Amino acid sequence: MGKSVLFVCLGNICRSPLAEAALRGEAERLGLEVEVDSAGTGDWHIGHAPDPRAAAVARRNGVDISGLRARQVGPQDFHRFDHIVALDAQNLADLEAMRPAGAKAELSLLLDHVEGREGQAVADPYYGEEEHFDAAWADVMEGAKGLARKIAGR
Ligand code: 4NP
């Protein structure tokens, strides 16, 4: 049976939708069966489409994320997903505080899955410029590659 992965950032309109798209692409490339979703710790953007700048960087890299809609992470997600992967340290701390006792999900930071980048954050591009979205895309691609390799067991 395939593994399931939930990516979590603050708004679920910039970084985690990009991570979701990156892992989907990587899983497809590797022929890996994996269920992928994303969510935010905050509630401001529930039901919203990805930020246009996030959709644009995905499009520049050949991926359409415009159909995704933001949702908020909740305690039930810890029973549903094998891996919950935070984009930055604050997201991780918020998830740790929410984690129900006995839930199966393994918590990590996305860049923990990249050798030499353990503990690093994918910087929030929301108040940044296009180049910050390009940097976020590069980071989530690197993280998705490392994570996919681990899930594939190689
Ligand atoms: P994300 O970016 O966490 O990567 O989706 C943000 C989106 C919205 C806000 C902050 C960060 N906000 O403050 O509304």
The strands making up the biggest β-sheet line up spatially as 2-1-3-4
| Main beta-sheet annotation | 4 strands, parallel
First and last CA, distance: 17 Å
Low-pLDDT segments, ≥5 res? none
Q: CATH homologous superfamily?
A: Response regulator
CATH architecture descriptor: 3-Layer(aba) Sandwich
CATH fold name: Rossmann fold
Number of domains: 1
- The percent range for helix content is 40-55%
Mean pLDDT: 97
**Bound small molecules, which ones?**
4-nitrophenyl phosphate
**CATH classification class:** Alpha Beta
What class do helices, strands and sheet pairing give?
Answer: alpha/beta
Instruction: Count the beta strands.
Output: 4
Number of helices: 5
Strand content: 5-15%
**Rg computed from alpha carbons, rounded to a whole number of angstroms:** 14 Å
Q: SSE order, as H and E?
A: EHEHHEHEH
Sum up the overall morphology in one term: globular
Structure description:
The chain is of the alpha/beta class. 40% of the residues lie in helices and 14% in strands. Helix 1 packs across helix 5 (130-152) and helix 2 (52-60) crosses helix 5 (130-152). The model has no long low-confidence stretch (mean pLDDT 97). Bound molecules: 4-nitrophenyl phosphate. 4-nitrophenyl phosphate (4NP) binds at residues 9-15, 40, 44, 124, 126.
In summary, what is this structure?
The chain is 40% helix and 14% strand. The protein is of the alpha/beta class and 154 residues long. The chain has a 4-stranded parallel beta sheet.
